[in-house]
Every structure is written in structure tokens, then in C-alpha cells.
Amino acid sequence: ISVDESGYLWLISHDTLLRYNFTNDRFDIYDISAFRKELMIPQATTAPTISHPEPDRIWIVSTFICEFRIKDLNRLELLNDYKLEEGSYPVFLDFQFGINHRLYVSETGRKWIFSNVGLFLLDENTGIFREYKDEFPSDDFKGSGFLFWASQDEGIFLFNREEQLLYTIPPEQA
Question: In this predicted structure, which of 29-33, 78-82, 86-90 has the lowest mean pLDDT?
């Protein structure tokens, strides 16, 4: 079970991806059986998060990262099968927000993963999401709402997109 950026409820199984359609009061069904190799659905402790950042794109993010194009209601086309940097296996914790990791496509088109074990940026040349350790590029994230991520060594980070402010909760307080 996952909730995307727009508040849609998603369910995922070994061969089906379902999105609850509030307008029609039913589930839209996407067949993912052809992608079993890419979508090795992990144990319950590493439940996938669904991101739907663009109308024709669906991302499934977990121990694997897959980007799909919606071709029609029941068909998906796998566009990319990304990896996380070796040694950056996410440990999925709850933070009691129900969001463990989230894909975000910034205003500049860069692809990010906000997770409870760090902030990751896609290296487009290699197809690998690498942990981002540089100064946070606040100009990439305009709009409203908050983005958050965490690091065991550095604590919890909350970025207020509207005010362009980054808050840090140190590990000893987190």
C-alpha cells in the first residue's frame, strides 16, 4: 500500500498495480506481470512507494527503482530500471508518516529520492542513484509543502519549499 504525492491510494502485488480512482469510485488496474524480473517485490519490511510525478509516468521505488510510462489504462511500458549506489541499501523506517522514500522530479528535471537513510540524486550517465552529500540545492525545489529525508549520522531534514528554509533535527533529538 502506498499513497502518492497527489493523495492517490496505490496497492501493489506480484502482478498487479492498482490506483484508487476517486472520480469513478473504483480501482484503475495496471498489469505488471511482464515486469516480474525488474519488480522483485521485497519482504513486507521494504514495501514499495509509488510516485506519480507526471500524468503519464509511474515510479515504483524500493530496493529497486522502476520508471514506467502509462500507455493506456491496463498497459505500462518500462522506461528505466535504475539502481541505488552500492552500499546504499535503504533501511525502511516509518517516521509515523507512512512515507519511507519518495521519488521527486525537480524543476530542473533532476530525479531525487528522499528516504529515511539519505538523499539520493540520479546520475543520468550511469542510471545509479547516488547519495547526495553536497549543499542542498534549494532552487531545485520551489512550490509549497515540505520535503523530508533523514540520515542516521546527521538526523532528520525538513525543507519548507515555500519559504526555501532547511531545518535540521540532530540525531540525538530525532
Answer: 86-90
Sheet strands (E) in 16-145 = 16-21, 26-31, 49-51, 57-61, 65-72, 75-84, 101-105, 111-115, 118-123, 128-131
Whole-angstrom distance, CA of residue 103 vs CA of residue 113: 4
On whether the pTM is more than 0.90, the answer is no
Cα dihedral value 135, 107, 162, 143, nearest 10: -160
Q: Which of 113, 148, 147, 146 is nearest to 131 (CA)?
A: 113
Q: Give the pLDDT confidence score for residue 123 in this predicted structure.
A: 95
Lateral strand order in the sheet of 165-169: 146-151, 155-160, 165-169
The terminus-to-terminus CA distance of the chain in angstroms comes to 26
CB 101 within 8 A of CB 116: yes
Sorted by sequence, the CB contacts under 8 Å of residue 39 that are 6+ apart come out as 14, 32, 60, 64, 66
Q: In what order do the strands lie in the sheet with 57-61?
A: 49-51, 57-61, 65-72, 75-84, 128-131, 118-123, 111-115, 101-105
Amino acid 73: pLDDT: 65
- Measuring CA to CA, which residue among 150, 144, 142, 143 is closest to residue 167? 150
Per-residue confidence band for 91, with pLDDT thresholds at 50, 70 and 90: very low
